[in-house]
Design brief:
The protein has helices at residues 14-23, 36-45, 83-89, 108-113, 157-169, 181-201, 218-235, 244-252, 256-261, 266-272, 283-292, 298-314, and strands at residues 6-10, 28-32, 47-51, 55-57, 60-62, 73-76, 98-101, 120-125, 128-133, 136-141, 145-149, 174-176. It is of the alpha/beta class. It has two domains: 6-176, Rossmann fold, CATH 3.40.50.720; 181-314, N-(1-d-carboxylethyl)-l-norvaline Dehydrogenase, domain 2 (Orthogonal Bundle). An eight-stranded mixed sheet has the order 5-2-1-6-7-8-11-12, sandwiched between helices. The chain has a four-stranded mixed sheet with strand order 4-3-10-9, with helices on one face. Helix 6 packs across helix 12 (298-314).
């Protein structure tokens, strides 16, 4: 495996901050931010992590990639909606780096290829955190990042192993795959269902997402939507790595707090803030893939259009 000594994190939201804080304990980390004020605070105060880990770490932060030493690995940790803007700023930089996408949904890798010839790793993560400030993130859900070479690019399984190794050494959890698609599609279906139903209903993810005894129970809609996603995966020759229904059961049983109060998915956060969501990359991706396969996915179609209408209502 190649030793990775320098890592650049693009985007310092909750997930990017968790990667930055932990990886800075085992290698040189730089953070590319959108705001100069954010970069200045990271440079002067460092980054604090609480919750599942207690860290106070130092790193270099900047708004301009010209101010950052060439990294061995670039982790793009922005939301899917901001990937194009982010990689556009990198288009003439870091030619020897491996680039890893870690967004929800499908399609970000194709965007990255338009701006450089980097080897691309696809990754999906289940870890979660809350960003309390530019320099403080709370680590809430210490689950794995799944990593594998993007099927349309030049990255190798050995590259995925190297990245998984350094993430595991940092105290986070990662697993490398020769074929990332089964894991990626498992997360895609899980996220498409959880995020879009939460955004449409206003409900955080809680126990009622898996209740199926009464005809009116939300769990019946959740399960039916999962079945649609599984049909689309099968049509694309993907055998799921994990059962999305079981994944949702695990999330709703993670802790008493989640079970009682609910976990607010990112798409519901965006809806509440009247921001455009990642629906095009999640539910929208399944709708497109279903159409290409000649399949009907009426639940995905309906919820996709509801969320797009909500976005239109405030734009």
């Amino acid at each position: 495996m190649t030793e990775l000594k320098r890592v650049c994190i693009v985007g310092a939201g909750a997930i990017g901050s968790l990667y930055a804080a932990h990886l800075s304990t085992v290698c040189d980390v730089s953070v590319l931010t959108r705001r100069q004020e954010h970069a200045d605070k990271l440079n002067s105060e460092g980054l604090q992590t609480t919750g599942k880990s207690q860290l106070q770490t130092k790193m270099k932060a900047a708004c301009n990639p010209a101010s950052i030493d060439d990294p061995d690995l670039v982790i793009i940790a922005t939301k899917a909606n901001h990937v194009r803007e982010s990689v556009n700023t990198l288009s003439t930089y870091f030619p020897d780096a491996i680039v890893m996408t870690v967004q929800n949904g499908l399609g970000c890798e194709e965007v990255v290829t338009q701006y450089g010839e980097w080897p691309i790793l696809s990754a999906v993560t289940f870890m979660a955190g809350t960003k309390h400030s530019d320099v403080h993130v709370e680590y809430e859900l210490d689950t794995a990042t799944w990593i594998g070479p993007w099927t349309g690019g030049q990255a190798s399984y050995a590259n995925a192993l190297s990245v998984a190794d350094i993430i595991n050494k940092s105290g986070l959890v990662a697993e490398a795959f020769e074929d990332i698609r089964p894991a990626q599609w498992s997360k895609l279906i899980f996220n498409s269902v959880i995020n879009s139903i939460s955004a449409a209903s206003g409900l955080p993810v809680c126990k009622i997402y898996v209740e199926t005894k009464q005809s009116s129970d939300l769990g019946k809609l959740v399960y039916a939507m999962i079945q649609e996603g599984e049909l689309v995966a099968e049509a694309n020759d993907v055998t799921l790595y994990m059962d999305p229904w079981e994944m949702i059961l695990q999330v709703t049983n993670q802790s008493t707090k989640i079970a009682e109060d609910g976990r607010v998915p990112s798409m519901l956060v965006d809806i509440r803030a009247q921001r455009n969501t990642e629906i095009d990359w999640l539910t929208g991706a399944i709708v497109r893939m279903a159409k290409n396969a000649g399949l009907s996915v009426p639940i995905h179609d309906t919820i996709f259009r509801i969320i797009k209408a909500r976005e239109t209502s405030w734009s």
